Fold this sequence. Notes:
- The structure is a single chain.
- By secondary structure, the chain is mainly beta.
- A hairpin with a 2-residue loop joins strand 39 and strand 40.
- The longest helix is centred in the N-terminal third of the chain and has 10 residues, at 4-13.
Amino acid sequence: MRPLNAVVAGLVAAGLLLVAPAAPARAADPYTFTNTVNPILGDGSYYSADPAPLVADGQLYIYTGHDEAGPAVNDFVMNEWGAFRTSDVAGGEWTHHPSLMRPEGVFAWATPGRAYAGQVVRGPDGRYYWYVPVSERDSTAANRFAIGVAVSDTPTGPWTDHIGGPLISQRTPTANTIENIDPTILVEGQRVFVYWGTFGQLRMLEFQADMKTPVGTQQTVTGLTGFFEASWLFKRGSTYYLAYAGNNAGPASACTPANYHACIAYATATSPTGPWTYRGTILPPVSSTTSHPGIVEFNGQWHLVYHTADAVGGGHFRRSVAIDRVEWDDTVSPARIKPVVVTPARQADRTPRANVAHAAKVTVSNDPVPTQYWVKALNDEIVRANPLPPDMWGTWTAVNPNQQWIQYTWNQPLRINSSQIEFWNDQPQGTGVGVAAPAKWKIQYWADGQWTDVPNPSAYPTGTQGFQNTTFDPITTTQVRAIFDASTNGSTYSAVAVEEWKILAAQPASVAAPQITVEVGETALPGAVPVVFGDQTLQVPVYWDAVDPADVAQPGTFTVGGSVLGYAAGRVTGQVTVISPGDTEGDVTAPTLTLTPSGSAGTGGWFRSAVTVRASAVDDRGGRMTIRTTVDGVETVVSPVRSADATVTGDGRHTVTAVATDRAGNDSAVARLGVDIDAAAPTVSGTVADRRVTITGADATSGLARLEYAIGAGAWTVYSGPVSAPDSGKHTVSVRAVDQAGNTSAAQQLVIPADLSGPLTGNVGPIAVPTASYTAGWNSVGALNDDSDPASPSQAQIWGTWSGTRPASQWIQYDWTRAIRLTGASIKFWRDSAQGSGDGVAEPGSWKLQHWDGTAWQDVTGASAYGTSSTTFNTVTFDPVVTSRLRAVISANGNGTTYSAVAVTEWRVTADEPPSVPVTVTAQPRCLAGKVYLAVTARNGHTVPVDIELDSPYGKKVFMSVVPGGNAYQSFAARVSSVPAGSATATTGTSVVTAPYASLTC
């Protein structure tokens, strides 16, 4: 327990006023504080989540869970429920009940912890009922979460178990297979409706007025676009509303771009049982990955309660409850919930610092970014101790290219001289799978219409613990990018992930206080100030403190403070002169006007994004003006302003013009600017034929500049004609196209197969096509022959079969394009459960190898022992067999009732083919005296004598020491007048050469 003076200090620092208690409180004792900004309690002394509002006795209660996870713990540590209470939301006086109920303290059948989202409602009998998810201590269900009901005579307890067991579980009142959490309840007269569920599964069941007896059977709820969890049921007028956390993620989603985040959406119905109609979203993703709504009317005003990670020390598992107003649009039916205005409004961070990345627009090579990541994380200035996927930008997909990049673009030139980047990994470098730090990388900047490496970089470190620092000579630019060469095992590539990328500004000796002129009533100040770097002066963005309208109510002067982007030495002040807008007498001087484009500049004068053209006007009297801008003939007029932005979109060539008119009616000269945009990447495709890659590409706007290819981990090379394999091995070839604007297509990978015409020895697994009886979605059948054996494989580096139903037998198979002489195989198994458990993944009970004989599978003969180790390779040798298919049939280990899954990290198959002997053979059926005989000739093309055995359906003969260039000849009598088509062979050592022949009738 902290001393009271420490608590008071923390509350004062957070803007909270402690009213009571007057002495140190026990953990469960309520105390009162005053706070009018979100979160309701944000000083980091207590983290609250999953809010559920209730109006009772003229008070608003917000029941919450208690987040107790440490700052680096990625799990919900929730052991109790509490509540906030107020009689005046706007006044901000809250009483906090930090510990009202614990699962094991009320429900004898519950385990401690997992005190997830619940809701308190008043029953028809006037008592209060708390529906909460708890974990059943003695449950045998696959998921032990159940919903219990506690009852009390008052909103704050004490609470007792209303039922003596679960209200809802995977077996009560009827079986289900979902996770039974997040209940929401509506009491309407004597009818009670309960909705619950998560992970996209929502159920509904009606109960009697006793709050525990089911009416009918549970129903699956549909009609909720993107439903994930956290439903909240309420009624307004005659319409029923169901709010919920949604996460239908994607680049065009109205909910969220990242599937680890959630928006708040809602649906309506005319009945508490539905059917439901989706109506849209009311709250975008918050700072925590989860979101949880509660909507209630209190004192004539509707409110939304939710949680965020915005408290001091907050995080995804250290959340805090917030409250904001809900406004309605009653001009439509049913009434629409307007998007919630979140408070406090987000303000620019005015802390002086050298980092300028947060002011940049971000573009990346892998657009659209996979939905588990969030490109916003690159420059949000948040680095978590144990990040989740949306806390980073990443590139992981099933097939990763050998290069990726991230880019920052500013609207104006900045002077920069260093970088700090935080890589994330789940695999070491060199594995070619998962996410690893790049093999190498570099920083480039935009200068003179092209990308150039930054001058004199100190180093490009690739550590994954803390920021990796790179300094370089100062440069002035509007764009900078980092190019990452992915880590590889020689055939496949790891993905890349970055938690944060800071770009640090070069520091001027000082920043002079600017002189600013505004008109009466003008509260917007100039967005940039002049900053001197030696002989170069740049207009650098500045973030001013808000102007008090009283300061600009009449002519005069005042000072204002602010922070300059990238200037770390401290804040700056500006002298502001307020002038009268009517001072135009004698003004005959026209204003001057300049047009400045900003966007992602490409090559050849093209932009690779939408472009904002700022028309900035300056008048000699210092007043505001009217600015007319025209984009492709469409005019926009704004007044009174000092600048106007024209947005230019769409691929192609555009023209922007502008004219400024001052208060006296003087017009500036017409300013004109051509804007060429090609934001679309070119297309590329490749084909493989005769072990050569042919590439084609196209671009619709700026035109194709070049095609490029890279073999394996090699460098990109300009394509000039079909690309041949460098040797007889299997090779991955990456191809891409670059257009005249500098857009680069996503790299595509093609595989040149190995040349199997020569004799093969050693591991031939990598040149086979792997298949399996079943592969779990998070595993990969390609892991069998990726020629990698990592010490701690990721799930993508494993072939595995885990599923809800696990059969007694599974198989894996290799297919080659020709028959190969095989002599052995080695398998390393993987496990996460013990043998005999019948669950998880365990070493198999047994396994065997089979080969395809052309018509059926046959067990290999002469096999050595079949081991089942998961720590070393289990090698089996067998009698040589020539086949194009081999499979391993694996018998799962079990507990007598169920079977564990099986998994393999690598499967190697050994070939042993002796060098081929250059012997040619022909076979020709002929007639003699009405009978057929078969003439077979074999020629020795070797440089030494060889023994040759001729074999046909009508006999065989061995010829010893046939000299180089000599022939072995034999006529085999068929003794019949007609023979079918067939073949004869010539064998030298282990080499077999076959010669077909046609049918013949004499």
